[in-house]
Amino acid sequence: MLKRKAETSEAANEMAATAPKTTPTTTVQSKGDFIIGKEEPLKDYIKLIETRVTVDQIVDDKVTKENFEQISSAARDVIWQLLFSDELGDAESQKKAGELLEELKSDVSFYGPWAYNEWIVTLRDELLKRKLLDFWRDTIVRKQLGPCWSRDSDLFDCDDVPPLEFYAHAGCVAPFAASLKVRAAEKAATSGDEEASNQIERSSNNATALTGDFEANISKTEPLIDYRDLMKRYVLTTVIVPDEVHKKNVEKIGQAARNAVWQLLFEGTPTEVEYQKAAELLQEYKSDAGFYGPWEYNDWIVKVRDELLKRDMLTFWSDMIVKKELGPCCSRDSDFFDADDSVPLDFYNKAGCKAPFNMPQK
What angle (nearest 5°) sits at the alpha carbon of residue 34, between those of residues 31 and 36? Predict the structure, then answer.
């Protein structure tokens, strides 16, 4: 999503701090003549913004603030109606709701996200309650339409915690690169006394990342921690690493992750703990593969599937691979694909299982 930088004026900050808190309603609300219809909601919304908010003439800040609050409130109510009304809620209504929601989040990131951030949690819970999982995954999660944070808006600072928990529902994971997760965790765990020491370590890691001369070791004891540590050291650098070297670093760590998952699953007699460790690492690795390059993952995960089925490891297959959509990356989880690319339905349709999503409508 395009990040709109907020102005640092007192008016902008006041607007963000005083935005009203609203709850969704079951009918479309019109505030005065701030009306957004259900036929062309995005068009109506944009027209209101252009004529009441982003006007050429000088308008009192208070008036602009009140106008945007009323427009955004009307937009939230229309989105709710399009998704959850008994008369609506079809594919076309969901498409309209998604388009308006994406535009709305972009604007609230600039003008004030607080009401949106509370409301979008209520919207998520209603989507999950009604099992509207395609809209949840393809629109909310994939397009990152959850609560605004520092990645979206300058009304937050760099110490803001990413909304990882918001997206962790119905088998989904926040679509941010694991780099952001690791950096957030590292920053939260770092005290002022440790900063100098960490800077020295970071400089050493940067130097190694520039050469690619490191060993990628992932243990069976703490595979996820080891994987994240490797990513933090040699991929999430604070220096610019040449593309070819950076790619090789990612590939080296990816190979180590694949080896670790394979060992946890297929060497000896895996315990429930090892199954869980394998699933956690696999989920994290797929998230990164979707961001840095999915091709090796996509080839390899087919071999994992075939080995699981060969060994009759059907619980892991159905509960982890299928339910959590850990099959090949596609347009649902990676920007390397677009909506016209096929989704891997056939991958999941094995051993009595079915893909946890439907073929997208063209």
Answer: 110
